[in-house]
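Obj: model holo form, ligand = adenosine monophosphate.
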Amino acid sequence: MPDAPTPEFRLYNTMTRQVEPFAPTDGRMVRMYTCGPTVYNPAHLGNFRTFLFEDLFRRALRLQGWSVHQVMNLTDVDDKIIKRALERGLTIQALTDPVVETFHADRAYLRIEDAEDYPRATAYIPEMIALVERLIANGVAYLADDGSVYFAIDKFDGYGRLSRLDRREVRSGARVAQDEYSKENAQDFALWKAAKEEDERTGAAWDSPWGRGRPGWHLECSAMAMALLGETLDVHCGGIDLVFPHHEDEIAQSEGATGREFSRFWCHGAFLLTDGQKMAKRLGNVSNVQGLRDEGVTGAAYRHVVFSTHYRKELNLSADALEASLSAVRRVGEFAQRLAAATGGTPELAAAADEAEREFRAALADDLNAPEAMAALFVFIKRANAELDRHGSDAAGLAAARRTFALMDGVLDLVPEAAPEDAELARWVEERLAARRDARARRDFAASDAIRDELAARGVEIKDTPQGTTWQRR
Ligand code: AMP
Ligand code: ZN
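Output (holo structure tokens):
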């Protein structure tokens, strides 16, 4: 069967505030930079909402026929990391190494594919220094009397373009040294910070032309993005909170050095909320991937929760949503098993597969509409189950269904891990169903009913159809 036609890929661009056609510059490989975690604490479920949207994005790009070079940085030096290291009497490296490990383990649990590169900021200090030198040479950065180097925002015309800053809010000449600062004011921001005693004590200081110091947070992303992906990216992603100041400052630093557009598209995911509150690490009520593991929430179920809401809409995480997603992915898992075990299909199954693939591709190409893509999957499962109930013998129909399901699950990745007890349960159910068939053949309906009750007691529901008895877990 021919592939469904590939629809035009469209994406919302924060720079223009519009949905626009998107394709990689070279027509083949998407160069994608995604701001990664600050590794002082395990990432929380809000961070992972953003990383999951980026995972869906890269898989959707590949479905579209492109390859992807994704870079995700690991911020392993910043104000928060130094403060925490100091409290614990550690170097920043001793503090961040285990957190990086946890990040990758958590990511694997959520089936977030490997990016092509995970650069650590501390491994790119020479590139950062070179970038600051370029900015000074271009007259958009200056060494201040506190020994730090600042970016002069009034020397760079495009400042505020991404976040649509009103020029009146720009406080020309006022300086800010913190990595994160108030959204109300735009001020000259630190590119390179003169080392303080605590930086030296935690191993967070390096030699530079301006003396001992360390990079500002924004600088690292510009330096690593350009080192690994070139001066103009196809797309730069992150959570919506990064638009200002982080991405605004990345643009200033990169374009102030190269004179070229830094990224063709800017793509931002909305926040995950719990009870209407921003799930920030400092609120202390955070739930992370360890919490999911402890509660028995599979990675597949959390993916389902996240993909149920469009990435540009806020998502409220609730226990009810997690429950609903757990049972939704169980349905997907049961369907996967049934499809694998089936021996034939129907021509209608092929038609259902075709339609599902078309809808699925169209949904993802329409600004990554994951809820609609999932709807296409679940409609397909329903229709395919009905067709499989007919126990047809059409091999092409079955092959089409398998191919389409693999294609959709290759993007969504929603089949839950089969627990060992599932296989054991399946064997026991099959044995009980055989016993029930024998009982019914002898017209011993009391025994047959007793077996139905026995199955129900273990959460197994059965249905008698003209083709035989089917079962599922409640
Ligand atoms: P951080 O570790 O704070 O630098 O954040 C890593 C990524 O998670 C960034 O892209 C943030 O924008 C994103 N992020 C932080 N909090 C949330 C949240 N509550 N919901 C969604 N994304 C978030
Ligand atoms: Zn960044």
